[in-house]
């Protein structure tokens, strides 16, 4: 049990006074019970007994132990410092002929040695307030809490996102965990706290209810559990902060200490180092001015040099090195497979656009290779992919479709250049690079066995499309099934879960999204408010997926669900261009499972595969078909 109101004596509370230095502390009103860190409950019906607040340092303590006739200061030094600083402040105000500002009042009340620290804290407070206001404005009125509550949605747990803050150390944070949070149901001019329990979790966001409200949800509120105002039980005691019950229920009990002892015995709370872990998990090795190789967004077949312009929550805004006005940019996560260290393209034989800049610009430096995501090592000495082999692949220009594709070139270190059949440019400028272990490429028959619509080559007239006929007509062979990645992690996603997802067709945008289908490790992501044709197939470990509340935590702008009017206003946008392309790519009705059985696999293999593919789950079954040469 975390005994937050009994774990610290009165003598240990003085170290916390500076944390509220930007606020002017007024005397606490009468008839309000306050639990101090020695566990006693004080009241002051006459305004002269009970608790008092030091007018110099802000410490709350027992009034009888304070100094001066009026009991205004916690120590002799505070009394003397206040007297000295007050005289100086009065003289300064008279000389200037104007009243001091709030910032000046703060500095005047501090001892001289604390002025710099107080000013630094004041500036930090202003910056935090600005960030909070900017984040609130960017949400454009959208509230995850209201959205989830009004529709009874569920959100993907933080543990599904290993690349996100706290993704690997979330622990057993769940419903009924107790925390100490600011008490907003209070008329005190200074910040006080109370204990609340988690009623519901949605990613980083938690629906909290103050202790003492029982089944009354009238004052329930949502907050980000990783926020700076959320603390484990016991933090107030260690920090000298008072625990004050909400005004609405303060009359319910006369002995609040006994109530809390009963309620918190055996209860769970956050780990003591939770805030430290949050801070550490939000430190990112990529820094501005680092140079990388990244895919050329206008010619997918090659890479270009780009420079890190900014880093937000591990997401990088990259500016192509030749962009003079620094507007030609590209967004991706630092673990994206689309970025590499300088020299990567040459090392594997990938196309590369040489920069017209002959030397690095001042301050720019190459990113250390060890910072990039590692790919699985493969053995290319034995049976391996060959040029001309057929497979199925997610179209990077239309991520809602899985298409008939061909290996166009085999590169070093397991990388492949792949083209979409029927829509390739003559010069191969729209080939794209996938690693052999990529979860975005699949063996022939994957879509059929998993009931996914396969997009046939553009212009192919022999419909419905049949792989057996197509391979014979083109004189091609299918890539061996055993060469594909069959690993399926226990990812934890379920159909219907909410999350925040990058729109990979416009990667600077992160949108409210839903998991609508799961095929082993492959997720179908739907952007709330948009039509299904804008859905995207994404791997369960993609760094472009985030928990609910990630944008608020990192200060990134979240795109709320599209309304009907906003969808109609996008007629000239990239999404409409994508719509036109998707109409050209529309596939046709799938072959029946019986047809597939007859044409591609023998009966014994079919019986095994049918059992492995009938369910859409996160299981680890081998769901690929065995092909005949």
From TrEMBL:
Subcellular location(s): the record lists: Nucleus
Residues forming the FCS-type domain are 45-80
Domain of life, source organism: Eukaryota
| A GO MF label | histone binding
Keywords assigned by UniProt, alphabetized:
Chromatin regulator, Metal-binding, Nucleus, Repeat, Transcription, Transcription regulation, Zinc, Zinc-finger
- A Gene Ontology term for the protein's cellular component: site of double-strand break
Feature: compositional bias, Basic residues: 575-591
- SUPFAM superfamilies the record matches: Tudor/PWWP/MBT (SSF63748)
Entry's PROSITE patterns? MBT (PS51079), ZF_FCS (PS51024)
Q: Where is the composition biased (Low complexity)?
A: 563-574
InterPro entries cross-referenced by the UniProt entry: Mbt, PcG_chromatin_remod_factors, Znf_FCS, Znf_FCS_sf
User: Could you tell me the Gene Ontology terms of the biological process aspect for this record?
Assistant: double-strand break repair via homologous recombination; double-strand break repair via nonhomologous end joining; embryonic skeletal system development; negative regulation of DNA-templated transcription; positive regulation of double-strand break repair via homologous recombination; regulation of cell cycle
**Disordered: where is this region?**
1-32, 561-591
The residues bearing each MBT repeat, given as ranges, are 142-246, 254-350, 352-457, 465-561
Please give the chief subcellular localization of this protein. nucleus
- Name recorded for this polypeptide: Mbt domain containing 1
Organism listed in the record: Catagonus wagneri (Chacoan peccary)
């Amino acid at each position: 049990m975390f005994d937050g109101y009994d774990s610290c004596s009165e003598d240990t509370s003085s170290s916390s006074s500076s944390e509220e230095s930007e606020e002017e502390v007024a005397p606490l009103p009468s008839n309000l019970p306050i639990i101090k860190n020695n566990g006693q409950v004080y009241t002051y019906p006459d305004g002269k007994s009970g608790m008092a607040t030091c007018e110099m340092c802000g410490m709350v303590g027992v009034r009888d132990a304070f100094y001066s006739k009026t009991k205004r200061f916690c120590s002799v030094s505070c009394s003397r410092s206040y007297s000295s600083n007050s005289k100086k402040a009065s003289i300064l105000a008279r000389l200037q002929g104007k009243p001091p500002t709030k910032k000046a009042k703060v500095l005047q009340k501090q001892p001289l040695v604390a002025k710099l620290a107080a000013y630094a804290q004041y500036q930090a407070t202003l910056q935090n307030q600005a960030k909070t206001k900017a984040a609130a404005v960017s949400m454009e009125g959208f509230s995850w809490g209201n959205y989830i509550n009004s529709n009874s949605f569920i959100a993907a747990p933080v543990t599904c996102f290993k690349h996100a803050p706290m993704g690997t150390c979330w622990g057993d944070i769940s419903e009924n965990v107790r925390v100490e949070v600011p008490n907003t149901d209070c008329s005190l001019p200074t910040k006080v706290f109370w204990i609340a329990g988690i009623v519901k979790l949605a990613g980083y966001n938690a629906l909290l209810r103050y202790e003492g409200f029982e089944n009354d949800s009238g004052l329930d509120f949502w907050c980000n559990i990783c926020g700076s105002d959320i603390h484990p039980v016991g933090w107030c005691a260690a920090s000298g902060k008072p625990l004050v019950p909400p005004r609405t229920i303060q009359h319910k009990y006369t002995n609040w200490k006994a109530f809390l002892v009963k309620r918190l015995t055996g209860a769970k709370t956050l780990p003591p180092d939770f805030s430290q872990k949050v801070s550490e998990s939000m430190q990112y090795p990529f820094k501005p001015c680092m140079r990388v190789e990244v895919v050329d967004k206008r010619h997918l077949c090659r890479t270009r040099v780009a420079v890190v312009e900014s880093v937000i929550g591990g997401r990088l805004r990259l500016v192509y090195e030749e962009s003079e006005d620094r507007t030609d940019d590209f967004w991706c996560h630092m673990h994206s497979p689309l970025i590499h260290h300088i020299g990567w393209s040459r090392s594997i034989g990938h196309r590369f656009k040489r920069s017209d800049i002959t030397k690095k610009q001042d301050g720019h430096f190459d990113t250390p290779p060890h910072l990039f995501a590692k790919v699985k090592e493969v053995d290319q000495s034995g049976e391996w992919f060959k040029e001309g082999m057929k497979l199925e692949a997610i179209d990077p220009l239309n991520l809602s479709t899985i298409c008939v594709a061909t290996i166009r070139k085999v590169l070093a270190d397991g990388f492949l250049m792949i083209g979409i059949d029927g829509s390739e440019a003559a010069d191969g400028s729209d080939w794209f690079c996938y690693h052999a272990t990529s979860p975005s490429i699949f063996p022939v028959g994957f879509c059929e066995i998993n009931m996914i619509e396969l997009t046939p080559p553009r212009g192919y007239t022999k419909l419905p499309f049949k792989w057996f006929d197509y391979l014979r007509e083109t004189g091609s062979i299918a890539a061996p099934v055993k060469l594909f990645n069959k690993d399926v992690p226990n990812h934890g996603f379920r159909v219907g879960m909410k999350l925040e997802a990058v729109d990979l067709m416009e990667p600077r945008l992160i949108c409210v999204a839903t998991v609508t289908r799961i095929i082993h490790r492959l997720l179908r992501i739907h952007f709330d408010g948009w039509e299904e044709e804008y859905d995207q197939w994404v791997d369960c470990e993609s760094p472009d997926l985030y928990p609910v509340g990630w944008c608020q935590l990192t200060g990134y702008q979240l795109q709320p669900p599209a309304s009907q009017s906003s969808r109609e206003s996008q007629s000239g946008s990239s999404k409409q261009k994508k719509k036109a392309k998707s109409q050209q790519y529309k596939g046709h009705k799938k072959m029946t499972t019986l047809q597939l059985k007859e044409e591609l696999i023998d009966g014994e293999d079919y019986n095994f595969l049918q059992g492995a593919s009938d369910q859409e789950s996160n299981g680890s079954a081998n769901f690929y078909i065995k092909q005949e040469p």
